């Protein structure tokens, strides 16, 4: 293949994430509700009957299905199923920045407004309970931040002799900031806290303009 054909083959392509097709993809919704004329954020506590992360605090969401038109529709569907509300009561849905988590899954977060919170009837098989926190609390409360360090451990038989330095190769060590918010005995951390922190940062940026 000559260089002209190479360039024609690639011309006009839109870049994406390398290996994206093999990654699992999820959508979540950060739900806003009005409580006594004040904006609150709604959280779920995962059912203790779930295999993964039982009892942890999260936002509604889940894996993107082939039947979902797009990431936004997945967030709407999952929220509707988990909170037992009609999809039409989820409005003003706005995308936040998508992210890769430590398991190399792609997470597509959205923020949206639930217009009829009084109709919420959580799916007991997935949701142990729900609660809300005033947005003002998070805007006035800084999270606790702790670092998680990742260690590089090559598998047995890894060809260290093929790389410069061999066994003494200087691997780049990564770390991740974990955010912790505590409210009335509830601990919000992990992916949920990262999405929440990003959302709060966006609010401050807009207010600064």
Give the class from helix and strand content and strand pairing.
Answer: alpha+beta
Q: CA-to-CA gap between the ends?
A: 52 Å
The strand count comes to: 11
The share of residues in extended strands comes to 25-35%
The helix fraction, in percent, is 10-25%
How would a crystallographer describe the biggest sheet? 8 strands, mixed
CATH topology description: Nucleoside Triphosphate Pyrophosphohydrolase
CATH homologous superfamily heading: Nucleoside Triphosphate Pyrophosphohydrolase
H and E string: HEEEEHEEEEHEEEH
CATH architectural category: Alpha-Beta Complex
**Cα shape:** globular
- Mean pLDDT across every amino acid position: 92
As a whole number of angstroms, the C-alpha radius of gyration is 21 Å
Poorly predicted ranges? none
Can you give a write-up of this model?
Its cofactor is Mn(2+); Mg(2+). InterPro entries: CoAse, NUDIX_hydrolase-like_dom_sf, NUDIX_hydrolase_dom. The chain has 209 residues and is of the alpha+beta class. It has a single domain, classed as Nucleoside Triphosphate Pyrophosphohydrolase. The protein has 4 helices and 11 strands, in the order αββββαββββαβββα. Strands 1, 2, 3, 4, 5, 6, 7 and 8 form an 8-stranded mixed sheet that branches. Strands 9-10-11 form a 3-stranded antiparallel sheet. It is globular and about 65 Å long. It starts with a helix and ends with a helix. The mean pLDDT is 92.
Structural descriptors:
209 residues, alpha+beta, Nucleoside Triphosphate Pyrophosphohydrolase, eight-stranded mixed β-sheet, three-stranded antiparallel β-sheet, 4 helices, globular
């Amino acid at each position: 293949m000559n260089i002209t054909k190479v360039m024609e083959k690639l011309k006009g392509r839109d870049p994406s994430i390398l290996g994206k097709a093999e990654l699992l993809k999820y959508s979540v919704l950060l739900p806003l509700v009005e409580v006594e004329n004040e904006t609150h954020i709604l959280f779920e506590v995962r059912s203790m009957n779930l295999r993964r992360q039982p009892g942890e605090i999260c936002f509604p969401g889940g894996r993107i299905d082939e039947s979902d038109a797009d990431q936004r529709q997945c967030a709407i569907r999952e929220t509707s199923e988990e909170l037992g509300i009609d999809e039409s009561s989820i409005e003003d849905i706005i995308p936040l920045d998508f992210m890769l988590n430590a398991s190399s899954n792609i997470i597509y977060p959205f923020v949206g407004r639930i217009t009829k919170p009084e109709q919420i009837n959580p799916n007991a098989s997935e949701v142990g309970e729900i609660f809300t926190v005033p947005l003002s609390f998070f805007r006035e409360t800084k999270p606790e931040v702790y670092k998680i360090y990742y260690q590089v451990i090559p598998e047995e038989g890894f060809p260290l002799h093929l790389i410069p330095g061999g066994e003494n190769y200087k691997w780049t060590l990564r770390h991740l900031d974990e955010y912790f918010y505590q409210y009335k005995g509830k601990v919000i951390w992990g992916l949920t806290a990262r999405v929440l922190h990003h959302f709060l940062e966006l609010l401050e940026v807009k207010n600064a303009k």
